[in-house]
Prior knowledge:
Blueprint: E1 3-8, H1 15-28, E2 34-39, H2 45-48, H3 57-64, H4 74-85, E3 87-89, E4 92-96, H5 107-121, E5 126-131, E6 145-153, H6 157-169, E7 176-187, H7 193-205, E8 209-215, H8 218-225, H9 238-254
Helix pairs in contact: 3-4, 3-5, 6-7
Amino acid sequence: MTKVIALAGKGGTGKTTTSALLIKYLTHRKMTPVLAVDADANANLNELLDLNVQTTLGEIRKELKGDIPTGMTRDQYMEMKIHQALIEETGFDLLVMGQPDGPGCYCAANQYLAMTMDKLAENYAYIIVDNEAGMEHLSRMNLRSIDYLFIVSDPSARGIMTARRIADITEPLQLEIKKQYLLVNRTPDPIPSALQAKIDEAVAEADMELAGIISSSDDLIQQELNRASYLDLPDNSAVIEQVFAIFDALFAQAE
């Protein structure tokens, strides 16, 4: 059975960084194949993986407004183009949503992705969905059942408060979420007592567990500045050891 991992949180909390680290973890642990979906209009997951994007779902949508090759239906042509848009790497594939249809509108692009997601899912052990800020994509993509929802926060009171709000709105969206976690990124070491208190309060009052706390990492900063893939970070890097320990505990618990 394909397991779906989705990431949510306000902008700038490190959802894309967490997605890249998840890809590294799953491929390293041979929990493959993985489909990573960059569902943010400001797509940059490929940059953290040092991959070039040739085609996005938004570009496919524009093509579908034109003529379709003879002998193919529009749905068949769309499915073919989406498979061509997949960036295939060892252990994982990447699909990029790209720019929306218009100001604030992703309706057609999401419709095309939803139409093929069920077929795509059959080929993968895990699907990672890196969302833009908010939860709208999860309710549009045929991903009604989510195995792991990581609500990502930065080390700020506003970030923790937003994470609590997101945890509270998942039920009205009619999403079936099996496990809902808070993951706090880029924290100072040691963690200030006031921040720890905010984290403890959020977990106690909201319907989510604390997945873990990821310390601020110079290794991640340097890797991004050098435009190098997070997949190439050494396994003995402090942040990789920390992240792997968090995910080992969560996935082992779920099994």
